[in-house]
Amino acid sequence: MRPSFDEMHANSATVREHYQTYDRWLAQQPRDVMKARREEAEMIFRRVGITFAVYGDKDSGEGTERLIPFDLIPRVIPAGEWCEMEKGLRQRVTALNRFIHDVYHGQEILKAGLIPSEQITRNAQFRPEMMGVDVPRDLYSHIAGIDIVRAANPDGSGSYYVLEDNLRVPSGVSYMLENRKMMMRLFPDLFSDHRVAPVAHYPDLLLETLRSVAPGGVNDPTVVVLTPGMHNSAYFEHAFLAQQMGVELVEGQDLYMKDGFVFMRTTQGPKRVDVIYRRLDDDFLDPKVFRKDSTLGCAGLVEAYKAGNVTLSNAIGTGIADDKSIYPYVPKMIEFYLGEKPILNNVPTYLCRVEDDLKYVLDHLGELVVKEVHGAGGYGMLVGPAATKAEIEDFRAHLVTNPSNYIAQPTLSLSTCPTFVESGVAPRHIDLRPFVLSGAEVQMVPGGLTRVALKEGSLVVNSSQGGGTKDTWVLED
């Protein structure tokens, strides 16, 4: 594995140009002052209630509330790099929305033989209930979180790659917003020295996007955020976004159907709902159509949705495009639907359902990262170089038993960024999740959520696996 690309240092003696002002500032900060700032940030986050649930036993449903660790040292991206990444994100999300519409309508990409039909029709995320259903603007994923990593090239430069497409209920944007507020509170002088592009207008863009996909003929749509409830790991974000947009936060029990429309109960009486930003999976939306034991959704919701009387963001069935077994085909989608070459490349990926790919993966398990196609949160995966022989052999048995359930990728050495840890400032591996909004237009705020693997040498940035977050600065010049 090549040495990591360091975001701040070109080599041990050279700081990259876009980090030089910050580097001079950091060199003047006493360690005890930085430590005090970190403790202040933790106290404020705890007081505000910015926590998430960590589930020790996934089957028990029991978890503990924990702060996501916040790092004081920002990840800085120069304007030119962001401009190119933004173009790539617009291109990718546009193609993915075209693909989802095609899957539930003409299936032209399957007829062209670019994706095997069984990859769609046998996929757990495919929803036959959506076949032929038209949705506003033909858009399915109104809010997408695209995970991007940077790896070193032989010449020492770094290249960005898309690691995952999160198109169902991507989370984390509240931490992006709160991290920025915290940095501006703790270090206001830094923002007078740097022209950092703002992110605070994200809730306005989100509301604008949601209103733009309301059912036809609705001039002043009522938007709500649908949460599974306060025990959900991302409940803080649900409440935060509803409050920031100035809309109601509702649970399934607050909604009901009447005459083919969805209404919510309010203290002023029933109010029709036009757009639901739902933060729960398809399976729990409507007990009449999906899981009959679900108490989290609203009975009859799918009927109103298919009739065009309410918009769901994101749409039912969107998960077909963020399944890891579909990810390898996204470059072909971009060429098929847009007639363009991908601006952002995928990580090379082996499909274990393909015999030759499986043979290679089994022969090189110690070098690869192997993931469940439906896995999330860093679970259900093998990081070969960090695994024991026993773990590798145990995973091999799973692979042989059910190869179609896995993909594999080379172990990328994610780029590193200086991070304030107990021993001082040290490099830690990071990724980036920009949030792309698709409505009347495709738009996003500059940057996104930078996640950092706080354990030395770890490549797993997920908060559920001990990762933290950083503020992401996109410089305006």
UniProtKB/TrEMBL annotation:
Family annotation (SUPFAM superfamilies): Glutathione synthetase ATP-binding domain-like
Q: Which residues form the Circularly permuted ATP-grasp type domain?
A: 74-453
Q: One short Pfam family name for this protein? A: CP_ATPgrasp_2
Q: What InterPro entries does its record include? A: ATP-dep_Glu-Cys_Ligase-2 (IPR051680), CP_ATPgrasp_2 (IPR025841), UCP005522 (IPR016450)
- Transmembrane segments in this chain: where? none
Q: Which residues form a coiled coil?
A: none
Protein's UniProt name: Circularly permuted type 2 ATP-grasp protein
